[in-house]
Amino acid sequence: MEAAPDTTTILTPTSNEDLLQPQLPPTTEPLTFPLSHHYQYYLDKSTPFVLYRWIALLCVVFIYILRIYFVQGFYVVSYAVGIYILNLLIGFLSPQVDPELQALDDGPTLPVRASDEFRPFVRRLPEFKFWYSITKAFCIAFLLTFFSIFDVPVFWPILLFYWIVLFTLTMRRQIMHMIKYKYVPFNFGKQRYDTKRESSTEIASLLPAV
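Request: output the structure for the sequence above.
Response:
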């Protein structure tokens, strides 16, 4: 009579390091990374198309206004978007370095005379980030209009009046800041050096007089 085969399992010793290593759960990075990569790629490709980006933003705003008009609600959400855009506008119109603080440290850096060197205006909030933040805000607000929990009953003319007052006071303070430190938050219409005229003047000064 043949003996039954030995079916016992031989256990190999396990080191303490293997026992102490945590078992990480599977992640979704391999799936989310290509999506975020492609999203960032097309977002970067749209950077030079300033006019088309703002036209697309106007279409998004128009769709959101139609949504608010038909549902007749979600005025608190719209007010929050308005306050957020107002904060973004302050950063868009402000210089990257506050001239008031920099004047105390190193002296004035913005040109104050016609003969000063031209320096392009560097914003605290760049144009692309300004556009992208507004677009994202309206898209999120549009999604929130499908949840009734965010539809807080409120008398919307009060919110509109309060936002207009805040906008007026904020823009007045910003304009006074521009006048005080003599800067314009746009690069067009500023003095630029005429390199051809300067080079011809330098060459003429080096030539011997006849």
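Confidence is low (pLDDT under 50) at residues 190-206.
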